[in-house]
Sequence to fold (1700 residues):
Amino acid sequence: MNHDPRGVPLDPVDRIRFPVDPWALVETEPSRDDLGTTETLFALGNGYLGMRANPEEGRDSYAHGTFINGFHETWPIHHAEEAFGFAKVGQTIVNVPDAKTMKIYIDDEPLLLTVADLHHYRRTLDFREGELRREVVWRTPSGKRVSIRSRRMVSFTERHLALMTLEITMLEGDAPIVVSSQVLNRQDGIDEYAQRARASEEFDPRKASRFAARVLEPRGDWHSERRMILGYQTAHSGMTLAVAVDHTIETDNEVEELISTEPDIGKKVYRVQAHQGQPIVINKAVAYHNSRGVAVRELFDRCRRTLDRVRQYGFEHYRDAQRTWLDDWWAGCDVRIEGHPHLQQAVRWNLFQLAQASARADQLGIAAKGVTGSGYEGHYFWDTEAYVIPFLSHTHPGLARNALRFRVTMLPKARERAREVAQLGALFPWRTINGDEASAYYAAGTAQYHINADISYALMNYYAATGDSSFMFREGVDVLIETARLWADLGFWRTDASGGRSFHIHGVTGPDEYTTVVNNNLFTNVMARANLWSAVRVLRDMADHDPDADARVRTRLRVTDAEVEEWTACADAMVIPYDEALRVHPQDEHFLERELWDLENTPAEMRPLLLHYHPLVIYRFQVLKQADVVLALFLQGDQFDQAVKRRDFDYYDPITTGDSTLSALVQAIMAAEVGYQEMALSYFHLGLFVDLADLHDNTADGVHIASAAGVWNALVHGFGGMRDYGGHLTFDPRLPVEWPSLTFRLRSHGTLLDVRLEAERMVFTVVTGGELSVGVRGREVVVAPGDPVEVPLAGQGPVLRSLEGHHPVIGDLRADGTMITAEVPEPSAPLDEGPPRLVQEPITPSPATT
Amino acid sequence: MNHDPRGVPLDPVDRIRFPVDPWALVETEPSRDDLGTTETLFALGNGYLGMRANPEEGRDSYAHGTFINGFHETWPIHHAEEAFGFAKVGQTIVNVPDAKTMKIYIDDEPLLLTVADLHHYRRTLDFREGELRREVVWRTPSGKRVSIRSRRMVSFTERHLALMTLEITMLEGDAPIVVSSQVLNRQDGIDEYAQRARASEEFDPRKASRFAARVLEPRGDWHSERRMILGYQTAHSGMTLAVAVDHTIETDNEVEELISTEPDIGKKVYRVQAHQGQPIVINKAVAYHNSRGVAVRELFDRCRRTLDRVRQYGFEHYRDAQRTWLDDWWAGCDVRIEGHPHLQQAVRWNLFQLAQASARADQLGIAAKGVTGSGYEGHYFWDTEAYVIPFLSHTHPGLARNALRFRVTMLPKARERAREVAQLGALFPWRTINGDEASAYYAAGTAQYHINADISYALMNYYAATGDSSFMFREGVDVLIETARLWADLGFWRTDASGGRSFHIHGVTGPDEYTTVVNNNLFTNVMARANLWSAVRVLRDMADHDPDADARVRTRLRVTDAEVEEWTACADAMVIPYDEALRVHPQDEHFLERELWDLENTPAEMRPLLLHYHPLVIYRFQVLKQADVVLALFLQGDQFDQAVKRRDFDYYDPITTGDSTLSALVQAIMAAEVGYQEMALSYFHLGLFVDLADLHDNTADGVHIASAAGVWNALVHGFGGMRDYGGHLTFDPRLPVEWPSLTFRLRSHGTLLDVRLEAERMVFTVVTGGELSVGVRGREVVVAPGDPVEVPLAGQGPVLRSLEGHHPVIGDLRADGTMITAEVPEPSAPLDEGPPRLVQEPITPSPATT
Fold:
């Protein structure tokens, strides 16, 4: 395997088994060794319904999984030691009855891939068709050859629907063939993951492991000649579910059909006397409907309506619609990297995952694993707001709006939670499905108050990208106001000796969970400040543009002018910790007082740290799970000057473990911005292949959706250098020297823009919509429909030598315990004394400064 | 109820129901309202075996309880969110089969106290006899009168033995009487507390609540005509238990006897045709034996031997021995307060509890509740070392040695635990029975590294009081060395700008659990420093006095000179945080940066804070659960000058909630020392009546043993002004003006000293042992056997005006957020500029300074 200068593999994927294809993920041989990973990588979903890529015949599997976004069971959280306000209600996504399985017997011999004598095998996840296909040629134990081809699709246009087709043809010899197509409550609600976790001695807090008893209680089953329906209700959360399956068969062979349903299983069995060369085609249409409480019989009817439509329109209708939907998806967000097809494939796989996670979440949240696994228990985190919504806002803003509306609907529970932690306003839960805080470890959970500001950030990001004041003024503003209230109440004022007043936020945890419960976490304070300013700004926008709406919201939420003034005062006086000696932003007020963790001498088998050290040990050191200050530098980039961004990056990069998958791509973006181009590309590769190469050893639990969004962020914000502060797109590109070009699309205020970046130029083309003014390294460029604009560039931007050797400060600290002394070499003095990095000369980037 | 000037009731006990008796706790009417409390207050125990004061007839009860020190069940701790190094094995004391119950039926009507028509009722816990007695005259529903008298004793001399006598006499009328005496595995191992906790919506982290299934598995039962034995093994910890019961009856009435045993019950039934005036006396001898793993049949034999001796010697023999044992106990530790019999009674009740908790713990620990309840799950905490051992060392040092040996035996597990948290040396568990860390909430558990230093403190305290170098050199020193190693490894060196090097300890929690995981907690650093110095000092003592032992321990523990030098260096350079502006010791490095909690405006129903606020909220403020700095000022009093003690006390007292029972008596001691005599007395009263008046509303869970020891500490150290730094007793007394005299006894290096304190003089008398030199306010006094010494005193010591108004500093902070400014009035300037408070003129105390 080839590696880049920083030791990151240039292509960590086995290309014999997974050949490069720009529009598909392809597997050419099955393996038992990484079943869990491939089940995730080839999984299908539409944001509502997800099916892991278990084989039709059922075995072998790591964990069968079919998930419905938000369909969860609740359970009382028993804390080993209880305290007031600890989260009470656990919520875990339920693995719903499996409708994927179609067992295949030839001459009464079951097909079992991992032991079968296969003449051909190919599995394809097609990013344009939105379909999983498998082709197998099997030499049966009796020496016959049979072709088995299957197609599986979870519909983007009909979110309750999944379609499967199985085509079996005897290539050599005749044989009795049995297909037993099932819908099966396989685990009686007991999750295989849970069993696995319990069985093993290890623990991994990132895995779900909750249910010890039946979760899905049968509430009726029904069948007709070609339809089966099973109904369930969860034991504690009371949610209802129905799954219905229709079958049809097309063949010239003789067929006998059987059908039956019981509480936990429905079976449609075809017994076929198959003759060589006479194909058997079985179509299986599956509908899932669920509800928070509607009676199961009503869900039965909904399922019937979904399947009746399939009968009416036929499978091809939905396959065409799927293709059309995806054409539109790719038109809105495809990113092309010239000359590196393996990167191209990986980028598209990640973007496809974003479609599968968000397309039909409709007004549910987007879970950390989308609908591809039960990792993190199917919970919604800040990942959506910090990583996914910025992508959606600028590509498919309707989906961003849906995800944001979900937070609006959680506001009443967020208000309750604020009361529980003795605050005004609203506090969104750190992790949740139903709106209740489900984080049972407050230090790295509830203490992450920054989720309030992340949600506000996403709202403002959407507002900037779309100008959708209708949504903002009617609903979004409520979130801004209630979160601003929390910040104003949570923080407190302090007067220093010289009479200066500042606003402090104590006892919170930032994104980096390797330090917790700190004072004036930089990320939190910067984001909270923006949150407060945003509330003020949107109220001002409302007063200016929609006085009626303004009056309504002020009355409804009892907003006074004094309160709005207080928010401004809090924001303006917010403490932004800065260390004058090191000239960097400490991660929190006392972060620099910690000892430095010696990452270089930490053995690989002791990583990730969280699985090998007691939290107390980790918390005692300067060591990061993931970007924290560096993320703030990106999200609130206009709040920091260029020189300090460099110094901050230099300081934090060497002590960031990247133990979280949320880290690498943010580091890629900021490495690109401050000029470490090689490093940016390395981090990009690490993020790009997180799942495709299972770099964090937990892809089996599901796709890392935030990382997938991070791939887009790294491409567009990192290499494309795009920023959108307040609705105006600007570009300061950093094209990797290895890439001939990078092309991406952006939507801004209704205009879809095609952006092509080469080393020496950028080309902007309006695809649809009206004209748009964008900034390129300080020069304004107006792009009108039908009139592409080419902007010449003078180069990739600054390219600095690598970071190695940049850390004498830290070396000093480690060697003799010296805190900081004047003789510490200044890592980036030239930047400080030179002009600001935002170049005065348009188009020409600033030179590398070291 | 009368109150003192600070609003503390002068006598919070209902004296109609609980009349004053200097040598007994007496109850004159039963009540259903406080069953749990009185079950605790009248409980019997000997440190090994404890029986709650449930009535003979079994009902009514709050919770039947019989506890054996260290007899526990283990269970896997399921953390709601797991992390590396979190405690894995829960340990909970088991409520063992109840042998107290002797059900009484007259005319087939059961006696049920709370509804019975009682002509007389008196329950007495006799501090000199070591016996619980109850006298009842009952008018039965059929109108007869019957006298029922019972006696119950848990033997101090035969720790496996409890004796009960029931005497029933028909006073009016004849009647058939049935006594069903039982030994009963009442709860099948399911603790009533647990059921109660589960049933209620409330939570209280201080209660035990663990078992959902059978804990005690029957391992055989056996009976003969007058003996019953039941055997058990715990389901998971595998501990074994046998309980055996002998019965005899003496009466002239006609008697029929039945006996039977089954796995969970043994019954001895007497059916008596009772005639008026003919007493029935039933004697019940009970033996409990347990083991970590010895077969139950072997325990059966041990029980038989215990009970056979009772048959041989008779009950009176053990009752005499009990009286003799207690005579010796009181000779060693009685404290007399003249003129206040209700205080006298309360003091003796507390001292009696110390006997009941420690007498026969032998080489087990002393649990937070002794053997009187399952509160805190029967765990051992630092309470023993910080509160109980200083009492035992100076009164009954053999018991102190036993408790310290228990820690020595835990050393191997403490070493393992240190490895788990990535440290060298040993880390003692915050709470445990079997030596494994059982604290499931690390922030207020494992993070309390100070337990290491507390144990070392207790070792040194014992060493100072006794000069027992034999124990110290052979065993104790191992603990000092391994704990010193942990401190040297846990802390780290830092060099300041001027080249000064200091030693820092980060990420720990002090005794005050209302702030957690802080840097340079004053208490921890001061105690760790002493720990390091102690290791060095004892090694030096060994080199000087026992070179062989020195060589042995250095070889065994691989101690090098360099290591010992390092300990000295760490200790000498230990950071002791001090705020120059406020001129106080911050509780931790950043404590003073916190907001001040507004205790005055916190409603009573929101106290204790821990039951009404999320930890994150509490941690954000300057508010204390219990004394932290102030405890350091006491335990390491020679490390602080008098003026700063006053300022620190002034600072912390108003922000200390006293939500922990460990707080009031420490505040009493330091209030006395710095001169707040009224306040000292108030705090003393609050501590003295913690259980007797159920001031913390949880006496039902068991006696607060550390608080009971605190009563002695407050009397001897607080009012008596005794300190023992390094084996030399000194006195700077602070007799409350309301008390004519205070008399106590102290044991030092084998000499038992009687100390009588009056306003104008102290009288020292050697009771046994050789002559002793003690210091009184700076003057050395030699007391020889047979030659009492009277030392005239000039007064009680400084008496300051009350603390109210002493907190302008804090007022400033609260009102306008000002951190600290120069214009803050200095609370105790005169003390600073005057001579040190330790008076130069012997005998005459320094005058009050304000």
